[in-house]
Amino acid sequence: MKVYTFGEKKQKSLLMFQCTAEPWWVFERAAKKLSEEFRVFLFISDGHDEMKTDFISIENNVKQAVSFLKDEGIKKLDLVYGVSMGGSSVIYMLAHQFIPVKKAIIDAGITPYSYPKFICRLIALKDFLLVKIAFKSLKFMKLVMPPQRWTPKGEDPEQHYQKLFNFGKNHYSNKTIYNVFWSTNNYSIPNKVLKIDTAIEYWFGEKEAKKRKKDIEYVKKIFPQVIFKKFKGLEHAELVMMFPDYFYEEVMRFWKL
To answer: How far apart are the first and last CA of the chain?
Structure first.
């Protein structure tokens, strides 16, 4: 794992968990914007950290992050944010109460499946193969994630996609890719999640609403205080990666409530 810190002199703390199969610099603009108000810890998981590591599990992710925070002298978080796999890390962190958290944003966080294990294995294998194909063919990557939608403002589409493609091809091991999908869909949650006083919002894009239906129901069940926010016209993880200023505005809206 690797942690990038922004806004080191700020008093308020914010832990930021990334999503699957994206390099740290995809989240850099959002993290830097947040550092105007927070001391931001951008947590980059094993297997994504350019250190030849392999991703192990959501459980390991969270334990590493909490250990890092405590080593930094942080005993309570002001805000935690995670998107997709990172949202799963937030859910796991809150459910197990590893560290007190004032406010939490679960951005399209994936919740554990209730399917039989052999079905879960098949789903993980399918997702594994899709990612492997994407990082073997730049053309396929562009088909799955059209450049006109997924190129950050001010960047050249060809250069951006080539950089993503090269990173994925050279850094994500087979073990990392498989474990990411298996763990994100099968991490452990207590049979009874104890009540917490953390204020929680669950965000999702309008274009992914059907896919998040099960996750929304699950999160509502374990965190009754959660408030849901749908972002018009947006896809999965699009807000944080493509619109850092809008993302910042929404984080601050929630923080000031």
So the answer is: 33
